[in-house]
Amino acid sequence: MNDEIKTLLCATDLGAGSDEVLARAIGLARQLGATLRVLTVIGEERETSLVEVDSHVPQDALDRYHDDRVQRAKAQVEARIAAHAAGRPGLDLAGTVSGIVVHEGDDVAERVLAEAETQQSDLIVVGSRGQGVLEGLLFDSAAHDLIRRTRVAVLLVPIGERDGA
Question: Where do the domains of the chain lie?
């Protein structure tokens, strides 16, 4: 096993605290001289929309809508990375951020693991809202599901309110 970290995958849901996770991943990639790929998984709506509006909206319009959702999510990640860099004069992320990917799917852990395998990621960086293990198992949080299923090292970045903060 090679202990060197060359490729990081940051999985973000673009929710509260995701800027913290992204900042940690960028900082770590820069510190290690590694490349960073950012992944966002958005909910799969194609099947639902086909059932609900199949007879009312042409298929090409539905396809454009779903493609636009992916592009909007990608643009949001790009904007957050740009905002991170703008707050740090002289920070050049050209050699650090190797790509931004958006996938549709309901099994977030599966999509993250597939991307990690495809990119041969050495480390996955993901946020955790601080649920306890029991709560995470009961409510099947994406972070806990990822940890149960991965063979890649995972860095959990705590997000949200902290006691005493």
Answer: 7-158
pLDDT score recorded for residue 138: 46
**Residue 127 DSSP label:** E
Identify the CATH number of the domain defined by range 7-158.
Answer: 3.40.50.620
Residue 26 has phi, psi (to 5 degrees) of: -65, -50
Sign of CA dihedral 40, 139, 25, 36: negative
- Give the SS3 label for residue 122: coil
Q: For residue 76, which phi and psi values (nearest 5 degrees)?
A: -65, -40
37 contacts 21 by C-beta, under 8 angstroms: no
pLDDT digits (tens, 9 = 90+) for 33-92: 999 999 999 887 655 545 555 556 777 877 788 788 889 999 999 999 999 999 888 888
